[in-house]
């Protein structure tokens, strides 16, 4: 029975180096997604605090929306999560892929 249970960390390192716990994550009722909150959710999933499915359910996100946040962080870090910069980083990434 133990092998069916996943051991989760009590906390993970957040995007700004601070410890993140389930209690310190953004509220499930969050409607305004600023860069820091998106980055915290991505860090929680990457660190094993939440699964992708749990994050999507908790925050009413689609899998595609969460995946876009994760790609943005992987490609450009926290600045890539800024809504006003998405097109800039997308074209920059596409140019880099061509060379």
Provide the descriptors you would attach to this structure in a database record:
mainly alpha; two-stranded antiparallel ribbon; globular; 99 residues; single chain
The first-to-last residue Cα distance is 50 Å
Structural class: mainly alpha
Main beta-sheet strand count, sense and barrel state: 2 strands, antiparallel
Radius of gyration: 15 Å
The average pLDDT is 87
Q: What is the tally of helical segments?
A: 4
Architecture overview:
The structure is a single chain. This protein has 99 residues and is mainly α. The chain has helices at residues 35-47, 52-59, 63-76, 86-98, and strands at residues 12-13, 19-20. The chain has a two-stranded antiparallel ribbon with strand order 1-2. The longest helix has 14 residues, at 63-76. The N and C termini lie far apart (50 Å). The model has no long low-confidence stretch (mean pLDDT 87).
Secondary-structure blueprint:
Blueprint: E1 12-13, E2 19-20, H1 35-47, H2 52-59, H3 63-76, H4 86-98
Antiparallel strand pairs: 1-2
Q: How would you sum up this structure in a few lines?
A:
The protein has 99 residues and is mostly helical. The chain has helices spanning 35-47, 52-59, 63-76, 86-98, and strands spanning 12-13, 19-20. The protein has a two-stranded antiparallel ribbon.
């Amino acid at each position: 029975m133990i092998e069916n249970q996943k051991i989760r960390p009590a906390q993970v390192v957040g995007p700004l180096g601070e410890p993140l716990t389930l209690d310190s994550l953004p509220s499930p009722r969050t409607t305004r997604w600023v860069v820091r909150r998106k980055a915290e959710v991505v860090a929680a999933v990457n660190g094993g605090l939440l699964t992708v499915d749990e994050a999507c359910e908790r925050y009413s996100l689609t899998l595609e929306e969460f995946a876009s946040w994760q790609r943005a962080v992987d490609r450009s870090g926290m600045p890539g999560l800024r809504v006003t910069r998405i097109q800039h980083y997308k074209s920059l990434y596409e140019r880099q892929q061509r060379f």
